[in-house]
Amino acid sequence: MFSQNHQKFIEMDELSQKKVPFFFVIDFLGNNVEIYNEKQLEENSLIVDFQSFSNTKKIKALDKKTEWKSFPESLESFKKGFENVQENIRLGNSYLVNYTRKTKIETNLSLEEIFYHSKAKYKVLYKDFFVFFSPETFVKITSDKIFTYPMKGTIDASLENAEEVLKNDKKEKAEHYTVVDLLRNDLSMVADEVKVDKFQYIDFLKTHQKDLFAMSSEISGNLKPEFKGKIGSIMQKLLPAGSILGAPKPKTLEIILKAEGFDRGFYTGVCGWFDGESLDSCVMIRFIEKEGNQLYFKSGGGITHMSKLEDEYEEMKNKIYVPIH
Predict the structure, then answer these.
(1) Dist. CA 44–CA 213, nearest whole Å
(2) Percent of the chain as helix, strand, coil, to the nearest 5
């Protein structure tokens, strides 16, 4: 879906074939691709905290109570894009669309404090620009095997039998099946013997506002010979990430650009760390961006023909949290 001759993807291939460690950040549309070695991360005020790599500094404990306010758009405003999406689904142009919104937030925390005190599998601080704390892996590559872990479907963990309810919710289930199918197809472009190893397992996400359960699956395959050691070519083939776009990809992208009415930028793009042997990458969700002096939180969810307006509006608002506890 990206331009076929993107110089940066070629550069990523060259580095990974030489087994040179690097960090990369790719925006949603693949227009901006940034590549850094470990030294350049610091020079460019990028702080990364992954399970596989971290360049964080020691900092002192947070000595203030977190203040956090969000100002979601009205249901009426949310409804405009939502109806546009559902109309396209009715017409058969798409069967899953990830519809996201941009919400004004106010907090007494700086982006740096949010980065250091939030808890998540993947965190990145891009000084004075954005911070994210993502629970979602994009792909992992190790010994020529590629893995992906689509996460679709969340529920308030305090609800009675929340895990069971989530697993059996018709709409969430359909959405999860669709994304698993989409990512299995995506992986098949770069890998052989693609299979679903684990289906619909539940992750627990603790947040300042409320605890959530999220549903994930694990898919794996063996890299095709022509993609071995070529991180750039793999990314170029797989992006944008299916879990935050929808299916089928090209048409769904058109629908999103029209319905959302804002530029996602780096939100829902991907970033990753290649250590010279293995790759760990994530989808940039749970994302706070700074524009001037104003902070915005970008969040959303998958829309299918079964989606109900009020539920989707609530889900979008539920995801506006910071996991500081």
Answers:
(1) 35
(2) 30, 35, 35
